[in-house]
Design a protein that fits this description.
Low-confidence stretches: none
Structural class: alpha+beta
Mean pLDDT: 83
Order of helices and strands: HHHHHHHEHHEEHHHEEHHEHEE
Shape: elongated
Number of helices: 15
Length: 362
């Protein structure tokens, strides 16, 4: 089975839910042991309490439910409420998760009874369960689980804002000290954006921009790119050198992004009366990557390669082409069997010594 970048990304987004629920279930089980002391039953329900069983069963159930919630959150629920503000997302999703929490508590309650099938048909069991769910201890557990839900939702929002890979890099401290890397950069800019903004008005233009970036994001995911920054109508995408070169991934990403917009052309024409197009410049080289900032931390790239890529992208209009690739990147890629590579000549880039040969692709 081939694991696609999109599938791998979803796994990496869902896995933290399982881990968070596992960690909090272990904390809960240990706290419960400390609170009950030497008791071998639950005071509120009189059900038997066996720590050696709970330390296995509760984390297993919590991990399972955490995984289920992660799948629902990442693949379905978060998309349903993507156009709502954060507070409304919390309210709506919490209502859904409340049902899941109650189901979890019922299963945990049921599994603490030695004879589950007999217990279901036993009135004493149901009276005990009613006592538990109306007891103050239940409110304590519900509050505890609600805290876990809030943490997982907060994780979802932060990871969506920062990007999963960026968030993991912060947690792991990968770039706490500056690191030198070789990377490929694609600077992608919308064509005629000023005229489009004037035609649509700034509010409608912004709505189109949101849809435009959303439609371009799937190909970036499919081709293992990392969105480094949005700057107005510009998107900066990056790959580690080996990943971007493999199977011409960085170039295939560009053409997949063009295809994505073409597939949605009828939607854009109907809503905005036009289909946005873009141009892109690609280059590779060494950058220094590290955390920076005090009031607001970011992981940034610094190096001449970024300035050069921006200037290459700026030359697309001069040559009337949609893509320009530097000679240094072209030499590293295996383009000939798949693309028609055409030199547009040598250029002297502002602020650079010597000349760069640039290529366009079809």
């Amino acid at each position: 089975m081939i694991i696609t970048p999109k599938y791998k990304r979803n796994i990496n987004r869902i896995l933290p839910f399982a881990i968070i629920w596992l960690v909090f279930s272990l904390i809960y089980t240990v706290l419960e042991r400390g609170l009950l002391g030497n008791l071998n039953f639950y005071p509120s329900s009189q059900n038997p309490y066996i720590f050696s069983r709970n330390i296995i069963v509760i984390p297993m159930l919590a991990t399972t439910f955490g995984t289920i919630i992660g799948i629902l959150e990442i693949l379905y629920i978060n998309k349903w409420f993507s156009h709502n503000c954060f507070s409304k997302k919390i309210l709506y999703k919490s209502s859904i998760y409340l049902v899941i929490i109650l189901s979890l508590l019922f299963i945990i309650f049921l599994t603490t009874n030695n004879e589950m099938l007999a217990a279901i048909s036993n009135k004493v069991f149901w009276r005990g369960m009613w006592s538990f769910f109306t007891d103050y201890s239940f409110l304590g557990i519900l509050t505890y689980l609600a805290s876990v839900i809030l943490i997982t939702q907060f994780y979802t929002e932060v990871s969506e804002s920062m990007g999963t890979s960026m968030l993991s890099n912060f947690f792991l401290g990968k770039y706490y000290k500056p690191v030198e890397e070789e990377r490929i950069f694609m600077f992608l800019d919308m064509k005629s954006s000023t005229q489009i903004a004037e035609k649509l008005g700034h509010v409608i233009y912004f709505e189109m921009l949101q849809e435009y970036f959303s439609d371009l994001s799937d190909p970036v995911i499919d081709y293992s790119g990392e969105i480094y920054q949005y700057a107005g109508d510009e998107m900066i995408i990056s790959w580690k050198l080996e990943k971007g070169l493999k199977n011409n991934t960085c170039i295939r990403c560009f053409f997949a992004m063009r295809e994505s917009l073409r597939d949605k052309s009828s939607v854009y024409k109907e809503k905005y009366g036009l289909v946005p197009e873009f141009k892109a410049g690609l280059h590779c080289g060494k950058v220094t990557t590290g955390e920076i900032g005090v009031l607001k931390k970011e992981i940034i790239f610094t190096g001449d390669v970024l300035n050069t890529t921006a200037r290459i992208e700026g030359l697309c209009n001069n040559y009337g082409v949609a893509i320009l690739v530097s000679d240094s990147l072209t030499k590293k890629l295996d383009l000939a069997p798949y693309y028609k590579v055409e030199s547009v000549g040598k250029n002297t880039l502002r602020g650079k010594d010597g000349q760069f040969e640039l290529f366009t692709l079809n």
